[in-house]
Structures are given as structure tokens and as C-alpha cells.
Amino acid sequence: MARGRWRMLHFYKQIWLHTGRSQILLIILSLIVAALAAAPLQFQKDIINSLGPDLVVEQLLMLCLGYLGVITLSNIFKFMLNYRSSLLGEATIRMIRTRIYQSRYDPEARIKRDTGTLSTIIAAEAEEVGRFVGAAIANPLLQVGTLVSVISYVMATQPYLGVFLMLIVLPQLVIVLFLQERVNRRVKERTLTLRGATSEISKEDVEQLKAAQQGILDDFDEIYLTRRGIFRLKLSMKFAMNLLNGFGLVGILFIGGLLMMDGRSDVGTVVTAIAAQDKIRDPWRQLLNFYKELSSVRVKFDLIVGAGPVVPVRVGTKSGA
Length: 321
Description:
By secondary structure, this protein is mainly alpha-helical. Helices cover 85% and strands 1% of the residues. It folds into two domains: 10-153, no CATH class; 159-264.
């Protein structure tokens, strides 16, 4: 476990070393989007509570315009964040592919690197690692910031509902941490098996290829079985998340109903809490998916580094990001 954490820190150290300047802009944009996450909830609450026989049309219009303005502003910053993140990821993919391709022949060791392994890295693994780099810091920062912003707002509005939202979120973290390590092991096994099969297929000698045929077919079967195990684990996590989210919705309605009976809440607050749970579900799901992707990509990054040197290159605006 400690070794895995050290590798994770090393992975992030490499990301910051090569893309630090570009990541700063992404961090700023992430914080702005996260700060705006709770603003629509206040407008939603005020609009719902203003509905009724005493409705003032001018007030409703101003609230709706404010609501629309916050949503528009938030989406502008999201667009900027996603665009810059995608560009950084693509620039990183180009860098990894370039360096891996240039390392196919090591002039010092006088050895030619395995063509099948390099082909797999260039075609698939480089893209996964590079795409991840673009979101490596901004994504978790945005999701955590959104969670803090939304839960803090609900707790400030109605503490009981805010605490309940936190109790729904935390078990999901335990579930992912428990199951993801098992997924990681299977991802590594699948990647190594696929590399071996690709290397055998790329042999030019017909007799060697014929001799390796059964081994290649066995590798395909092994990849299928490994993927089947990954599917079971991932779908189990998804099942648990959906169950907890359903429990959360029912719980908010029940607790909100009791609070309204005692006069400690109103319809707008309860509806806003439901909307907040919906708003929490997406960043929390993305945060958990990010952790799963991080674990998987870190394994593949280690495998890429083990296959050949990826020369350090600073990826920034000059690289097209």
C-alpha cells in the first residue's frame, strides 16, 4: 500500500515537472467553476419559495435572470477548462508517442526494442496516459471543490440535510477504495498479456508465428477472463453507488418532511436539498471515476516507463496547449 502511494506521488511529480505551467491555469479555472457550483441552488430555493398567491412577477423575473446568468457564466468557465485540459492532454500524448518512437532503437545498448510492445504503447497506452495528464489536477480539484461548495451551502441552509448528504457520500469512498485495487491488478495483467500477444503476432518468421499460435489464442482467452473480472468489479461498484443514491433521495424526502412538520424547513429548502444531491452525485461519481482512472493509468505509466525511456519534455503553450 505504501509502495503504491509512493508511485502515485512519483507519477504526479512527473506530471507537474512536465506540465506545471499549463496546470496553473487549469487550477484557477477549476476553483472558479467550483465556487459557482452552489450559486444556482440559492436562486432555485428563492424562486420556489416565491411561488404562490403573493407572487411578484418582477421579483420572479429578476430571480430567473440571475439564475440564468449564473448558469451561463459557470458554463463559459467550464468550456474554457475542458478545452485547455483537452489540449494539454493531446500535447502530452504527442510527446509520449514521439519519445517512445525515438527510443525504438537504443544506440548505446545497440539493441532494437520490441516492435509489438512499442506499437501497443503508441497506439493505445500513450493515449490513455496523455489524456489523463490533462485532467490530473484540475479534475479532482473541480469535483472536490464542487462537493465542498454544495454541501457547505446545504449545511448552512439546513444542517440536518447537510449532514445526511455527507453520510451518503462517505460510504461510496470506502467501496471504491476497497474494490479498486483488485481492478488495478487485473488491468496490469491484461496489459502485459496483450503486449505479449502483440509481440508474438508481430514476428516476421512464419515458422515462429505458427509455433506461437496456440499461445496467442490462450492469451486472448486470458484477456477475456481478466476483462470479465474487471466488469464484475466495476458493475458491483456502480450497483452500490446507485443504491446509496436512491437511499439518499428517500432519506432527504423523509427528513425534509419531518422538518417541515416542525416548522424548521420549507418546501424550497427540501427541493434544493434534492437538487443538491443531484448536483453532488455527478462530481462525486466523476471523482470516483477519476480515482479509478488514476489507479489504472498509473499502472500503465509504470509499464510505459519500463518499456523504454520517455525523455522529460516540458509540455506547455509552445506544444499547442
